[in-house]
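Annex B.
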Amino acid sequence: MSDLFPGFTSHWLDIEVGRAFVRKGGEGPPVLLLHGFPQTHVMWHRVAAELARTHTVVLMDLRGYGWSSAPAGDGGHETYSKAAMGRDAVRVMSDFGFASFALVGHDRGARVGYRLALDHPGRLSHLGMLDILPTFHVWREIDAGRFPAAHWEFLARPAPQPEEAIGRDPAGFFDKLMAGWTRDGTLHAFDARALDAYRKGSNEPLRIHAMCEDYRAGASLDRDADEADLAAGREIACPVALAWGTFFLTGRDEGGPTPLDVWRASFAPQATGRQVEAGHFVAEEDPAGTLAVIRSLLETPA
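Haloacetate dehalogenase: predicted structure tokens.
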């Protein structure tokens, strides 16, 4: 994996539930990159080195993913709440000497990012979110029958039902899932070394359980936190930029609101952004378009 991140150093840093695996490279203003499901920090390999030309870039495997610790969790799913994962991000960046930093997240990592921005105003100088809608919005759409429940409902089912189903063929389950979310419906967009990392990070029981707990937290604590903040009128204080693909979100409801519309109507009234030429995995399918959105965000005065 070091070949995918030339010039980056590797670190194991303490967090609340064990250790986080982290890579760090470049010099300049700090930016933390957080991956999504079912991937690891490796998903940033096509943008990290270029971004490190002007910034200090930190990449972290979220708790339960990649090479970071995968605790069993608790009955209430707090261990895998986005609030808890946000505390990991703060601790890792603090250990590097950064009290404030930019954060760009994809999928679950973006959910960690906006929860951190709402819970700890002032910590983030900028927030970039790749191909997500707010958690509360997705669940409302699922409940109303406008979005398919799909993996959100399946992974959030009580243990051990989804864990056992996935465990019968983890590689087959995750390969099919990921291929279905790309623009061309295949795995061709992924570097073979990256695919190997994703498969190795999702083929053992503790990490499969962690991923399910991540979604159980999303269906309960994360959703509740969103609803409470929405009712209180809370908004993200720092500049926000979005990038979304041509299929994963917009393909569900043609003619409906764009991701930008949804975020502006909820937590980020001043958000900017645009669609890029990709499916769900925007940083790997369209790295140039994704980098353009990130650089535009980071050039915005905080």
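The radius of gyration is 17 Å. The chain is about 40% helix and 15% strand. Further annotation is deferred to the next reporting cycle.
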